[in-house]
Design a protein that fits this description.
The complex is a heterodimer of chains A (488) and B (131).
Chain A: H1 58-71, H2 92-98, H3 101-104, H4 116-133, E1 137-139, H5 145-162, E2 169-173, H6 179-186, E3 190-194, H7 204-210, E4 215-221, H8 233-242, E5 246-251, E6 270-273, H9 275-278, E7 293-295, E8 307-311, E9 314-318, H10 335-371, E10 387-389, H11 401-410, E11 417-418, E12 428-430, H12 438-457, H13 459-464, H14 476-481
Parallel strand pairs in A: 2-3, 2-4, 4-5, 5-6
Antiparallel strand pairs in A: 1-7, 6-7, 8-9, 10-12, 11-12
Chain B: E1 14-15, E2 20-22, E3 29-33, H1 35-41, E4 44-48, E5 55-56, E6 61-67, E7 71-75, E8 80-85, H2 88-91, H3 94-98, E9 106-110, E10 120-121, H4 122-130
Classes of the chains: A alpha/beta (488), B alpha+beta (131).
Chain lengths: 488, 131
């Protein structure tokens, strides 16, 4: 086997106990100055003799978290091709902008005239997202993608109610994001699954057969979760509109199509964007995110309020009219995420946003073409920003997709998404994103080729992986069945 | 993961293409998932079951299974009313992995037993899996 240079190598990793097992009595990170105000009596009911807090010095705490971070892997340490998640590198300037004290520390209840800068950012971000999607009215409130979906479903319901049409169902293809049916159901709709066709995309006939006058509309993820563009989107939208329904676009995969498609012209009425995926906020650790919702002119009156508007020379908050579905988030949404998105869009500009999407697609297509002889493609047709392989060849060696993913960790990569989408057996979904250069992608391809070779020659190496990490294979089953959520 | 000849089948049951099984005979029918399905899903960590008294049409989703790999929908092989749910699965979802044909998920009173005829028997289910 030819020697492939792999990025993964072993270094010294320190053992580290839990904070409660560390430190010692009396250790502290700071000394509080002597009180110079009179002592106030505390109600006895609020006092207890002991607090179960660890006692630690500053260096104890710094080393604790630094050591834990060294066990970890992030997009700042290496390639993170986790499909469907768009784990692209986020330029640090956007962090700097989001941390600007004048913006970060602005109190959300300040009068409009004292926060003109923040309102201008919100107003302009709304207009940029409108330009990117083609849908003119925008709310920045939703806190993440699924929250945007729920807000969209509330608007579907409000629109139908305003027309006295009673609709109970929502069509959802099997290649839509998994949160779509949950969002529809939360809003009281019954999700009706639609199977994708043999090419991995939605077929017009399937929508035609399912769409009726009890159906409020359809939720389409485009590009879909197989990384394929729903090429029949316009015909499908026409069918749904003709029967009095609306079209929801899940824009989680916008990273593939910025500046390339116009969602409105594709027939989409409502669409959310995941700012934390496409527009530069670190994610994967549980938030915060932002899932702004963009809607057509006709649906603007249903949007949550307030929204930032421009009033002559001033920016102010507009509190909406009687048709608004109401607030969906306290104050103005997750403003730090909005600031990063604003900085990202402004530093990139329209031409570079388009180029980012083109490179994201080019990188995925390159991996697909280079690896399709090594791993079987789920659908051999042009892909967008991610490509999906199956485990059909691995099964011959009794090696699983999970084993390959664990071996990639040993080689210095974050694994791709595995076992999703469900319509592909043992799916391996790779999304390189635009921020990886060709040399790094070539190295990744060479490593994956080597691992598939090892699956045949030394399958035990894969089954035992990861060997180089601080912890080996964790007992996910026990963690799910008997979660331990206490620190001490 | 099991080889094909390691897979277990219950010759008495009927099967769906989505890998649910249903018992045959009697006023109440048991519904569960096949050995192939549990093997593909891996360790099951949560079973979401419907309320007793709920009714579903054939092919309608009546619950979900969550494994370490994925969340999967459960579809009812024949339409009817749920007359019992297997409470033991609440604390011990692993029963489905250990004994897929013993660990029923719901019992239903079928609305039309003729629907059973449209399901796969063990032999045709085996053939479907063989491809």
């Amino acid at each position: 086997m030819s020697a492939v240079t792999i990025p993964g190598a072993s270094g010294i990793i320190q053992n580290e106990p839990l904070l409660w097992e560390k430190g010692g009595k009396g250790r502290r990170g700071m000394c509080v100055p002597a009180s110079d105000v009179p002592v106030a009596e505390l109600p006895a009911a609020l006092c207890r003799d002991e607090l179960d807090f660890p006692e630690l010095s500053e260096v104890d705490v710094v080393r604790h978290y630094t050591r834990l971070s060294q066990w970890n892997f992030g997009v700042d340490s290496g390639m993170y091709p986790l499909g469907s998640c768009t784990m692209k590198y986020n330029p640090k300037i956007n962090e700097k902008v989001a941390a600007t004290p004048a913006l970060a520390a602005a109190h959300p209840m300040l009068p409009d005239e004292l926060v003109q800068g923040s309102l201008q950012v919100m107003y302009e971000l709304q207009s940029y997202l409108a330009a990117i999607t083609g849908l003119p009215a925008v709310t920045l409130q939703p806190a993440a993608g699924a929250h945007g979906e729920l807000t969209g479903m509330l608007i579907f319901a409000a629109w139908h109610k305003s027309r006295d049409s009673r609709r109970t169902k929502i069509l959802i293809p099997d290649t839509a994001h998994g949160t779509n049916p949950a969002s529809a159901a939360l809003c009281g709709f019954k999700p009706v699954p639609i199977r994708s066709g043999p090419e991995g995309i939605l077929e017009v006939a399937a929508v035609e057969a399912a769409m009726d006058e009890e159906t409020a509309g359809i939720m389409i993820t485009n590009p879909n979760t197989l990384g394929l563009f729903e090429t029949r989107i316009r015909e499908i939208a026409e069918i749904v509109h003709a029967k009095g329904g609306l079209v929801y676009g899940d824009g989680a995969n916008m990273n593939a199509v910025m500046g390339i498609i116009d969602a409105r012209r594709c027939g989409v009425d409502v669409l959310h964007l995941n700012l934390h995926k496409t527009f530069s906020t670190p994610h994967g650790g549980g938030g915060p995110g932002a899932g702004p919702l963009c809607v057509s002119e006709e649906l603007a009156r249903f949007l949550p309020a307030p929204r930032a508007v421009r009033d002559g020379e001033l920016y102010r908050l507009d509190w909406g009219g009687p048709d608004s579905v109401g607030r969906v988030h306290a104050f103005h949404g997750n403003v730090s995420v909005l600031l990063r998105a604003y900085a990202y869009i402004r530093t990139m500009g329209p031409a570079n946003l388009k180029k980012a999407s083109q490179l994201a697609v080019l990188n995925a297509a390159y991996i697909k073409e280079r690896l399709k002889g090594t791993l079987p493609l789920a659908y051999d047709r042009p892909c967008m920003h991610e490509c999906v392989f199956s485990d059909a060849l691995l099964q011959e060696h009794k090696v699983t997709t999970l084993d390959v993913a664990k071996r990639l960790i040993d080689c210095g990569y974050h694994p791709p998404t595995i076992y999703f989408p469900l319509v592909v057996h043992g799916a391996i979904m790779i999304e390189p994103t635009e921020t990886e250069c060709k040399a790094d992608i070539d190295q990744f391809i060479a490593v994956l080729e080597q691992i598939v070779g090892e699956a045949a020659e030394n399958p035990e190496l894969l089954r035992q992986a990861p060997l180089r990490t601080k912890v080996r294979r964790l007992d996910e089953t026990l963690a799910a069945r008997q979660p331990c959520l206490c620190g001490s | 993961m099991k080889e094909f000849d390691e897979l277990l089948f219950n010759e008495e049951f009927r099967y769906t293409e989505e890998h649910e099984w249903v018992s045959v005979g009697g006023a109440e029918l048991m519904v569960g998932i096949s050995d192939y399905a549990q093997d593909q899903l891996g360790d099951i960590v949560f079973v979401e079951m419907p309320e007793v008294g709920a009714t579903f049409a054939r092919g309608e989703q009546f619950g979900t299974l969550e494994s370490v790999k994925a969340v999967s929908e459960l579809y009812l092989p024949v339409g009817g009313e749920v007359v019992a749910v297997n409470e033991a699965l609440g604390d011990s979802p692993e029963l489905i992995n250990q004994d897929p044909y013993g660990a029923w998920i719901v019992k239903i009173k079928p609305s039309d037993t003729a629907e059973l005829e449209q399901l796969l028997n063990a032999e045709s289910y085996r053939n479907m899996l063989r491809g």
